[in-house]
Structure formats: C-alpha cells, structure tokens
Design goal:
With 263 residues, this protein is mostly helical. It has nine helices and two strands. A hairpin with a 3-residue loop joins strand 1 and strand 2. The N and C termini lie far apart (42 Å).
Length: 263
C-alpha cells in the first residue's frame, strides 16, 4: 500500500506541474472537467442514483464548469437552471414519486459539492498557475503527513463516528504538512513576504483538508462504502483523492482575496 501511494504520487505530481505551468490554460480546464465527471460518477454510484438522473447530473456538472470558465457572471443562473431541469426530468421520466426527494437532492448536492467547489480552482489558475501548484502541493503534504503521523503516533480518535482511523495526532500532522508544503512552494516559486502569510495559507489548507476528508467519510459511511471506487491503485477513487483539495480550493481563494494576493 505504501509503495503504491508513492508510485502514484511520483507519477501524478510531475504531470500536474507540467500541465499547469507549461501548457495552455485550457488543458487544466479539461483536467478539472475529467476529475469532476469521474468524482461525480462515484458520488452518484455511492448513493445509487441511476439511469437518466445520473446522466443528466453528469451532463450538468460539465456544463456548469464550462459556464464558469467561459462566462462566470452567468454561473448562478446556470446552477438554478440545472435545478429546474433536474426536477423536471425527475417529474416527467419517472412516474413513481417515491424517492423523488432523494433523487433530486443527490443529483443537486453532487453538482454543488464537486463541480461547484472545483470552480474555485479555475479562478486560482486564472490568477496564476502557481496557485494551483501551491494548493495541490500543500494538500498533498498535509495528506501525507496526516497519514504517516497518524499511523506512527495516533492515539486519540478525532471523530470516531465518521472516520474511526483518523486521530487528533494525524490532524495535527495535516496542519503541519500544509504549512511545510506552502513554505516549500513559496521558496521555489512564489517568494511571498512576509512569511506569516504563507504560514497562514498553509495552516488554513492543512486544517480544511481534514474537514474535506471527514465530509467525504461522512458520505461514505452513510452510503455504506469504504472507498468511492478503486480506480487509483493504493488511493481508492477520484473523489477520495480530491475531497481535501475540493474544500481547500475555496478557502485558499478566499484567503488570497482577503490578503490582496489575487484580484
């Protein structure tokens, strides 16, 4: 398991760096659409949303990202339109009203939770591709340190009802890892001063990464599954890998806006 995690990370991290730093912005947009679609498929499968409702939800997931990327002033209207379409499709194409609330709620929550949160990464990339590297490196460092500190030193349960294996010590490791990842990327790419800004950004990412992980664990526990899928060797599903970064993206964006680092 440890070897698989390291091999996957060793392959994906350089690929992400090349894609973000050296290729046109459209490539990162398409990557987000692919990740969002796969994660949304896993989310719908977890809650057994099938048939036309699943495909309409996935179509709207890609459409919302495209609207945000090309004309973000219309994004809020597109979200409301997706709600209208999903409710209408459920009404017209499935005669039985039983489970209609669950079907519509699952479809709409998936859109807000996955493509909705991932739109912030498009905003960060537009401000500067370096922010994407900063985000992913900090989240990866937070995840890694949380895992190894939790395995080696974890004693006190963090939130046993939601995720029995997570510990307070692992959460502290996540916060420290976020700071270390942020300091590393700042040293080689960003060069922000004063350094307390970098520490605050990294700390925020490290803390919220744990929250994102716990939220997905909450959904998986409710759905009765261990992993969202097994598409990534040693890592589970796509949603398992982007749960933390999906939460950290908005927080990084808002923090950068508040500090005046991006416009």
């Amino acid at each position: 398991m440890h070897t698989k995690r390291l091999i996957v990370a060793a392959v994906l991290v350089p690929l992400l760096y090349i894609l973000v730093m050296y290729l046109p912005a459209e490539y990162f947009f398409f990557l987000i659409v692919i990740l969002s679609s796969l994660a949304l498929l896993e989310f719908y499968a977890m809650f057994r949303l099938e048939g036309l409702m699943k495909y309409i939800g996935m179509l709207w997931g890609a459409a919302l990202l495209a609207v945000f990327y090309s004309s973000r002033e219309h994004f809020a209207a597109a979200v409301l339109l997706s709600l209208l379409v999903i409710m209408t499709v459920r009404l017209l194409f499935k005669n039985d009203p039983e489970s209609s609330h669950a079907d519509v709620s699952t479809a709409v929550l998936g859109l807000l939770y996955i493509p909705g949160l991932l739109t912030f990464q498009l905003s960060l990339a537009k401000a500067s591709p370096v922010w994407i590297i900063f985000l992913y490196a900090s989240v990866w460092a937070a995840d890694s340190l949380a895992y190894y500190v939790g395995k080696g030193f974890g004693r006190r349960k963090l939130y046993e009802q939601v995720s029995p294996n997570k510990t307070v010590e692992g959460a502290v490791g996540s916060a420290i890892g976020g700071v270390l990842g942020a300091l590393f990327i700042n040293a080689i790419l960003l060069h922000l001063v004063p350094l307390y800004r970098v520490v605050l950004l990294g700390l925020s990412i490290g803390v919220v990464t744990i929250v994102g992980d716990l939220v997905e664990s909450m959904f998986k526990r409710d759905a009765g599954v261990k992993d969202s899928s097994h598409i990534i060797p040693g890592h589970g599903g796509v949603l398992d890998k982007i749960d933390g970064v999906a939460f950290a993206g908005p927080v990084l964006y808002w923090c950068c806006m508040g500090m005046g680092l991006i416009k």
